[in-house]
Amino acid sequence: MSSQDHPVSSLQDKIRSSLPYTLAVVIIGFISLWVRTLPSDAVFLPGGIVRFMTNDAWYHMRTLYVLLENYPNRMFYNPMTNYPYGSYIHFGPLFDQMIAITSFVLGMGNPSPQLVNTIAAYFPAVLGALTVIPVYYIGKYLGGRKTGLLAAILIALAPGHFLQRSLIGFTDHHVAESLFSTFFMMFFMLALISAKEKKLRFEDVFNKNFRVLKEPLLYSVIAGVMYSAYQLSWPGGSLFLLITLIYAIFQYIIDNFRNESSDYLGFTGIATFLVSVVLIFPFVHPDMGFSLYYYSWFHVVTALGTLAGFAALSFLEREFKRKQIKAYYFPLLILGAGILGLVIIKFASPSLYSLIIHAPTTIFMIQKGGPSTIEEVSSIFYYDKVFTLEKVFGNFTATGFFASLLGMLVLAANLFRKPKPQEVLVLIWSFLIFLAIYGQNRFAYYYSINVSILSAYLGGLLLGAVKWDMLEESLRTNMRSPQDIQGFLKSIRLGHVLAIFIIVVVLILPMYSTAMLYTKSAGSVPNPPWTEATFWLQTNTPDPGMDFNAIYEAPKDGELFDYPDTAYGVMSWWDYGHYIEFFGHRMPNANPFQAGVGGRRVSIEEENQPGAASFFTAQSEEEGNAVLEAIDPRPDKAGARYIMSDARMATDIFGAMPAWTLDTEGYYQTIWTGRGYETIPSTRYFNSMEARLHIFDGDGLKHYRMVHETEPYPIRPDEVWYKQVYNLVFGGNIPVIHTGYVKIFEYVKGANITGTASPNETVKISATILTGQGRTFEYTQSTTADSQGRYEFTVPYSTEGPIEGETQFDTAPVEPYIVSYGNTTKEVRVSEEAVLNGEEIKI
């Protein structure tokens, strides 16, 4: 055999030895996909209906349909939400583009809506299944192939946010964040390992030594591409810039103390982030200035800053070695340089300085006020300000979570030996994501990656302790034919069996059983009442005069979008804004990006800004009207024409509304009952606009009329209990029944009914209202005639039915209004025109 045959033989052996592991990863990937498609019955409904699992998924479908209709142009500014201001789209473009391109390919250039919906539903499951690939390789290069396989198994079965956000129908960009950030860490790790093994020096760059440069450069370029893909999936992707830069600082310090060259590290960092700058730059919107949430100069500057950081650290490290400066000065110099850099930025660009200073606290610190009520941004360790591990165990299992902590401790202990770059990288990465879940539990879908890798790392150490490698060697050498099975079985030791038993029982089975609970509890949104209510809104309210799938130019800075005179807003709590827009084709005032919420952010001393929070907590109709009128700065336009409320807004999520105003006292009170102390709603709650509308059906309000309600829908706590409390504690007399789950009200001028009675006499007006569900309730007002005997009522309901071009309401009085005083009763009919135009009706 010639010497030239050896490389071929070596390559064949390498392929042969890798083939079983490759097949294993493929099988694990398909298992992961199977797990993620288990809830398909909740997504694909009879009649070809596709329902998604999160409200943000509907917004992705909204931007996706606009992209498909206007391809390749995408929507960056959307005037159809956060009325009357509109919202810039902070979603990254890549997720929608991947679905759009796949749709065009599979639909041969003309995909049907059904095909687009199906592809979009499967997309998160596919991306979640692909995540086993980078997790395997990170585990492999951290602790060997056995560690890689175990890591792949664990991430395939990982429960919690990672599984939830990669289930079929959870069409949101979160799973793309996890996939691309993990691929970034994988290729960055491979670049570091390759560059260090080849003893890469900057002289190799200057001398164009491609034999040394080729492989590290390839890995670095791909790492830059993957970081860019991550950044273009989520604008907040600068989080991994911070992780990489902090890792680099530690690695430079370690290398300097060990008197080792860090050129491999500098080359990898510079090449990686040079690629990312080039790829991200075309997506920057200069008019966004420095913004963390939109693609702005911040993302280019921070990538350039990270690149410059690697270059500066490499220069300092080489100078330290050249001048033989003592190593302990190195971290002090880095600290001083960092402080000096921040001082320079503060004077050069205060806005950029503020963003750099506050961005980490936004991620790593517990939110307060209104943001603390957002489920995904609350701390994973606290519920209602009480420390708990319930959410931690639900996301990672108890054994997985504590294994991740132990794994970090083992990697930290390795720092005192001769740590490999990949060990330091995984340690810093895991620790910072651990801090991130302390601030916001949404980052649990990131930390699941770390839990899988760290748990597998411990599992690999256990297998190493029982000499698992000898068993693998026996498998490779003895299993040449079926007759060799007996010889292989003889090489299995008790320690091997016990190690596998421990790994399966302690790590794998808890992951699997918890994951199955998530797949069984998955469900699509919105619920049927919201679907019905928003479709009713689309077909029974006036067209706002907007092209739903058009791409609109953003208004100039400081100006309002030029809406047509027919445009109007729909007020509801921010959770439901996407449903109102997507299904109703109407413009919500508030949306799930927390735009249009209003209220306060820092202190109770602030002015309570107009928005959903200040409207629904308003303590009188006049205060609520003032909020609606103030939302739109134009004096002749109200901020909303319709108000949508559901039973949850009136019950279990009402507490979030005052939280956004920072004025939370007095909505509930504690009373003694025969069963002990019980917290019940108070007078302040029942005076709120939310209670007046939903609990009392708008009874007595002058400018709000119910125009539609859906069927009741089960919820806990339910409105019946609130009505019982009102009747028993506050002397009320309202029917204790379930009413429509979603109620739609219209804000109108109201007809002015005037007449005369005896001076100072009490006058009442009433009407029996029949809803589209066949339910009736009483609408009443009372007033006192003045000293001349004059009285006036402003009433919101028309007795004559809807008119063309206006609201086609199905809830109205069954007969004329009855005005009564003394022994006198009078019937009054009110036209729709009188209600809409505020006309006077004299009795």
From TrEMBL:
It is found in: Cell membrane. Residues 530-650 form the AglB-like core domain. Coiled coil: none annotated. Keywords: Glycosyltransferase, Magnesium, Manganese, Membrane, Metal-binding, Transferase, Transmembrane, Transmembrane helix. Pathway: Protein modification; protein glycosylation. It is an enzyme of class 2 (transferase). Pfam families: AglB_core-like, AglB_L1, STT3. Its cofactor is Mn(2+); Mg(2+). GO terms for cellular component: plasma membrane. GO terms for molecular function: metal ion binding; oligosaccharyl transferase activity. It is a multi-pass membrane protein. Its EC number is 2.4.99.21. The chain crosses the membrane at residues 21-38, 119-137, 149-168, 174-195, 216-233, 239-257, 264-284, 296-316, 328-348, 392-416, 423-439, 445-466, 487-512. Residues 52-468 form the Oligosaccharyl transferase STT3 N-terminal domain. Residues 750-841 form the Archaeal glycosylation protein B peripheral domain. InterPro entries: AglB-like_core, AglB_P1, Oligo_trans_STT3, OlisacTrfase_arch, STT3_N. It catalyses: an archaeal dolichyl phosphooligosaccharide + [protein]-L-asparagine = an archaeal dolichyl phosphate + a glycoprotein with the oligosaccharide chain attached by N-beta-D-glycosyl linkage to a protein L-asparagine. PANTHER family: DOLICHYL-DIPHOSPHOOLIGOSACCHARIDE--PROTEIN GLYCOSYLTRANSFERASE SUBUNIT (PTHR13872), DOLICHYL-DIPHOSPHOOLIGOSACCHARIDE--PROTEIN GLYCOSYLTRANSFERASE SUBUNIT STT3B (PTHR13872:SF1). Belongs to the STT3 family. This is dolichyl-phosphooligosaccharide-protein glycotransferase. It comes from Methanosarcina thermophila (strain ATCC 43570 / DSM 1825 / OCM 12 / VKM B-1830 / TM-1).
